[in-house]
Automatic annotation (TrEMBL):
Localization per record: Cell membrane
Protein name listed in UniProt: histidine kinase
Top-level division of the source organism's lineage: Bacteria
Domain Histidine kinase: 41-258
Length: 259
């Protein structure tokens, strides 16, 4: 609490009372704390790939490059880590722009089903690689007010996670409930699931249940934080239901009209 006290002086100069102004600065402090934690997290996340880039390139320069096998495997690591670093920076910038409302929001009527089909199309290779079965909603158009790029990103991030966290030969199901004023998009997988104690935290930036697994799959820990922001920018909501070892279901609720 931030307190300001000032005397209340009468016409003849004597003090008649005291005015006390109380500001609740808990919220400001809380936001400051979140911000400084974020900066610390970003620095840490950026340092990890850079340390690895530095280490592997130094080892190559120190002589390891005379062995073509070693050179190839180290260069592969350097390449993958550079890509992860690139993704990380793109995600961080994207998130900070959305948070600061720097990106104008122009929703327009569009067919969600079409966006779902187009997005899945771009992920077919990864789905095939893991032999995952994907079930999609019927192809009849469902029109809502939304921004195409944001909607695509929401669906893409959820399917990408379903692919990452589902073992080979598993299944992914996308369903759509078309209600009077809103739609619900369900993305359900038969994957590893998320423990109850982790569920409330998965939308936090950089929160990962298993850091090593996420990192190996190229994850940045920002995907769901971005999804949540994008959904909320459409005045929607996101829910998650999961059982460890059984699978996870994310539900996106979007209003059909943006007024
Ligand atoms: P990441 O880049 O690590 O996937 P996200 O923000 O997309 O970051 O997800 C945060 C964490 O939530 C993941 O690290 C993972 O532990 C968990 N998670 C997200 N989606 C799923 C899913 N479909 N099944 C199991 N765990 C998931």
């Amino acid at each position: 609490l931030d307190t300001h006290i000032a005397p209340y002086v009468g016409v003849n100069g004597d003090i008649k009372g005291v005015i006390t102004v109380l500001h609740d600065i808990t919220e400001i402090r809380r936001l400051e704390k979140i911000r400084s934690e974020f900066v610390a997290n970003v620095s840490h996340e950026l340092k990890t790939p850079i340390t690895s880039l530095k280490g592997f390139s130094e080892t190559l320069l120190d002589g390891a490059m005379h062995d073509p096998e070693v050179t190839k495997s180290f260069l592969t690591i350097i390449h993958d880590e550079s890509e992860r670093l690139h993704r990380l920076i793109t995600d961080i910038l994207h998130l900070s722009k959305i948070e600061q409302h720097q990106i104008p929001f122009h929703p327009e009527p569009l067919d969600v089903i079409k966006v779902i089909y187009e997005t899945v199309e771009t992920m077919q290779e990864e789905l095939n690689k893991k032999q995952l079965t994907i079930t999609l909603p019927e192809e009849d158009p469902v029109i809502i007010d939304a921004e195409k790029d944001r909607l695509r990103q929401i669906i893409l991030n959820l399917i990408a996670n379903a692919i990452t966290y589902t073992p080979e030969k598993g299944s992914i199901e996308i369903k759509l409930d078309d209600e009077e004023e809103k739609i619900k998009i369900h993305v359900k997988d038969s994957g590893i699931g998320i423990a109850k104690e982790d569920l409330p935290r998965i939308f936090e930036r950089f929160y990962r249940v298993d850091k090593a697994r996420s990192r190996n799959s190229g994850g940045t820990g920002l995907g769901l934080a971005i999804v949540k922001h994008l959904v909320e920018s459409h005045n929607g909501a996101i829910e998650v239901d999961s059982e460890e070892g059984k699978g996870t279901e994310f539900t996106i609720i979007l209003p059909k009209k943006q007024y």
